[in-house]
What does this fold into?
Amino acid sequence: MGKMEGRGNAMKTRIFLPWYALIVLMLALLPGVAAAAPERDFDHFETGFPLSGQHQGVPCAACHLRGVFKGTPLTCNGCHNGSIAPGKPAGHVASTAACDNCHTIFSWQAAAMDHSSVMGACIQCHSDTMPAQHIQTRASCDDCHGTVGWSPARFSHDGVSQICSSCHNGVQATGKPGGHVQTTAECGTCHLTRAWSPAQFSHNNVSGPCSSCHNGVQATGKSSNHLQTTSDCIDCHSTNGWLPANFSHTNISGACSSCHNGSTATGKTGDHIQTGSDCDVCHSTNAWTPSSFDHSGASGPCSSCHNGVTATGKSANHVQTSGECDVCHNNNAWVPANFDHNSATGSCSSCHNGITATGKSAGHIQTSGECDACHSNTAWLPAKFTHDNITGNCATCHNGVQATGKPGGHLRTTSDCVDCHSTNAWLPANFSHANITGACSSCHDGGVATGKPGNHIQTTGDCDACHNTNAWLPASFDHSTVSGSCSTCHDGNTATGKPNGHVTTSGECDVCHTTVAWLPATFDHSSSSGICSSCHDGITATGKTSNHFITSRQCDACHTTQSWTSVSYDHVTAGYPGGHRGFTCTRCHTGNSETSVWETTAYKPDCAGCHADNWKRGPHKKTDKPNTIYYTVSELRDCAGSCHMYTDSSFTTIKKTRNREHSPNGGDF
It folds into this structure.
């Protein structure tokens, strides 16, 4: 307190004129008034607004305009508004805070900075602070940096606009290690921004031969029993998988038997012709078989090899003969073989009994005639045939065994073949629905006969419910047999669908319409899938009236689908305390819109934003010792907060506690 008094006395002697001198000066400025008054010192401290800092050198008339003392602003922005005193310059930081939150009365320049009250994005101020080597990013500063200090900083790849290698070069950030796969691809091709591993991999951008990685260290290499070859992996294998692999003998060196030994690759079988020759004398590198063979080097009769063990011998049903193979066969191939029926004795069936030579097949026409009655000794087919010699009805042969019978999709009928077909040809055939039994769909299934096309109406009714046996079209129609939803037909192609201006809905047609007629139609909002305004636009359905509250919300934010007049409205912000519920909407929303108008915008969204004009200084004392000091509107901008009274002007000891003296629900504010 002693310091304050000393400071006050200094202010008296250094700065201020005596009060009577000030009055004389003011009167002298008025026309026709003489300056004469008693002298007395004036202590500005007693006003509750002590002059300090830069205020000490300001002339009285700079604040007390036109000699009016009452109502002089007590807050910084009350004077520093660009009218009474200089205000915020054009490039000032966008902030809702009062001047003295950052500046002092001793100097504008020595200003503290509090980001908590700053409005707008960081880049509005920090527009030239990004160093040249900074990561190129579209993110705002505060995505990574804090308001306390630039570093340490968080990091996220989300806003980065450069390629990976511009940072991951081993200098700014970790780059490729020494043993990394040789590739021209960017990091993000394989790695994720969240973690290096696990990583995806693609051979597409890999440079260098396969063996630079597939060496058994970095990646799988050749196995111990791999073919001896100097070829690179890709000559046989693909980048999709080791197996299956292509193979070419072109790059293999050495004799065939070095691999074809029964271990590394297939070797000679147990019954292989005994020979000291290497594989490629008879076989090729393309396949084992067919293989070349030359009888010219063979000695002895045919049967010495063609004994059924070393080489193919006579089959069980071979013509009985004591002759050597080359009597009929030649050394180039078994077949064709020379054979002459002229040397055969006896009837055909003595050989053609199914054992010695081909006999009648299981499905052969039952007959006691000899083979040559129909066949010739040159070939079985073609064979002569006439129905004239056949007895019995068609089905005895045309049963699908002896002769062609009804196919799987044949019409269901007990009639004999001759009822529709002739002995000359199956087709054309006569047909009449009169002899058909069973439902239409037993034939008209798309297999036996034409069935429903892919876009046919889904129905459980049989064909004759709509069609007749004379022609498919014209056809009658009845919704009663239709299965499936309305939209399967009413899609604008098969049948009439929704017009362009139809209500947006996921409901099927029959939710509103009937099968008798489109109109009149019922309506139910529960199946509507669009926003309210897509219909309630004043054209399709009733829209907003000309005096409607201005809002961008959809109808159902306030109205219900049952009635317009039962209206509910929820405020989306917390700046609408309960005690204000008795007011009309236009008391705050003067523009009949969701935007509320604050009477004193400097104090929004606190109580003083509307109640600053109702401020009463007298009841809001901070202390009355040694002089009475009052709270300012800015200090008590939240009327529901605390405004304690202190024992003295040091404001350290609370004399009287006053918490939440006011409440929006308190009636008399």
In short: The chain has a mean pLDDT of 78. The longest helix spans residues 2-14. The two ends are 35 Å apart (CA to CA).
